[in-house]
Amino acid sequence: MPTARIIEQDRKTTQSGRAKAGKWTLEFENDRAQRHDPLTGWVGNASTTTQVRLSFDSKEQAIAYAEKHGLDYHVVTAPPVKLKLQAYADNFR
């Protein structure tokens, strides 16, 4: 049975807005060992589930999807964002 990882999308460090805050992604974990392709030199396997990413608006929707389809899952939350507030003049002390 495939194992899914439900991930909370965190804010990118280059963004100050909250456009994608609260979005959740379901992706499948690799259940087979990867193998080396001698012709191209690439690494991969026959399973295409690792290429699938599903987006959800809430954690509950992602969990409901995983339970409906009989997937084992675990939830990974984003680390809290720590803001360092300072005045512009503090850069020149």
TrEMBL record:
Repeat listed as a keyword: no
Keyword Transit peptide carried by entry: yes
Pfam (any one): NDUS4
Key words, A-Z: Electron transport, Membrane, Respiratory chain, Transit peptide, Transport
Gene3D superfamilies on file: atu1810 like domain
Entry's localization field: Membrane
Predominant location category: membrane
Region (Disordered): 1-22
Signal peptide location: none
Full protein name: Oxidoreductase
Organism: Sphingomonas astaxanthinifaciens DSM 22298
Classification of source organism: Bacteria, Pseudomonadati, Pseudomonadota, Alphaproteobacteria, Sphingomonadales
